[in-house]
Amino acid sequence: MGKIVVIGSINVDISTELNDLPQIGETIKGSNVSISPGGKGANQAVAAAKLGGDVMMVGMIGEDAFGADALANLNSHCIDVTNVWTASETTGLAMILRENGDNRIIVASGANNAWPVDLPLETIIANASILLLQNEIPFVVTEKAVNIANLYNVPILFDPAPVDHFPLSFLRKITYLTPNETEFKQLPEDLLQAETKAVLVTQAKHGVEIHDETGITHVPAFPVDTVDSTGAGDTFNGAFAVALASGKNVQGAVTFANQAAALSTTKIGAQKGMPKLNEIKD
Ligand code: RIB
C-alpha cells in the first residue's frame, strides 16, 4: 500500500453535552466534557492509520501545550509527522456542542491559517498513492496541492467542509468529492466532469449516495447506537482512502468506510471511536 498523504487541519476539540443553546448573556450548564485531539485533517490521518494505512500528516500546530499534545497523538498512531510544522500562533481549537449524538462546531483556526509559502509540497505529493484534503486550511494551499497532484496523477479525495464557494474549475480536478447532504446542495451542479470519478454524498444514518458516470448508487449505513457523530465524516474519508489503496473498488470502499464511520460514532470524541481493522471485521 502506497503512502496516504493528508494535508489539512490539526485541532484540539473541547466538547460538552447540552440540552439547549444559551441565549445572549445567558450561562447554561453543560455536562460530559471531553478534551481530545481533532481537526478534519488529523482525524482523517488517524482514521487511516488505525486501519493499517501508511500515513503522512502535513499540517500546522501552535507553540503551546495543545500543539505538543496533537503531535504526540499523531506519533502514537505511527503517522509520519516530518511535515507537521510549528507556527507562533495558538493551535487550532474547536468548540463543540453535542446534543443527542449530533454536534455544532465552532473552529478557531489559529496555526491552521499560518502556512509558510515554501513548504516542499511537490516532494510530499509526487509519490503519494492518494492525497486527502479538506477545507480548514488556506484555500491557496489546497489549490496548490491539487494542481501538483494532477501533475503527478495522484488521486485526490476532497472533503469540501466547511463548505465554501469553490470554483467549478477547481472541483473538476478532484477525483473523489465527499460532501455531506447539506454541502452537496451548496456545490455547483455538473461536478462529474474532467478528472472527477465520483461524488460520494454522505447522509449520516441514511448511508452514502455514489454519483458517478453509471448514475446514482445508494450504499446503506450500518445501524449503531450513536453517542457522538463528531469526526464520522473524517473517519469515512480516512477509511475510504485505505480501502482504495488496498485495491477495493469505489462501492467496496464506500461499504468499508460506512462501517468505520458508524463505529466511530459509538464513543465520545472525534478519534476515540475510530475502529481498528479487526473491529470492523468483528
Ligand atoms: O469533523 C470534525 C472536526 O471538525 C472536529 O474534530 C473539529 O476539530 C473540526 O475540525
TrEMBL record:
One of its GO terms (cellular component) is cytosol. Signal peptide: none annotated. GO terms for biological process: D-ribose catabolic process. Pathway: Carbohydrate metabolism; D-ribose degradation; D-ribose 5-phosphate from beta-D-ribopyranose: step 2/2. Substrate binds at N11, V12, D13, G39, K40, G41, A42, N43, E136, D234. The keyword Transferase applies. Its EC number is 2.7.1.15. HAMAP family: Ribokinase (MF_01987). Belongs to the carbohydrate kinase PfkB family. Ribokinase subfamily. Belongs to the carbohydrate kinase pfkB family. This is Ribokinase. It comes from Listeria riparia FSL S10-1204. The lineage of its organism: Bacteria, Bacillati, Bacillota, Bacilli, Bacillales.
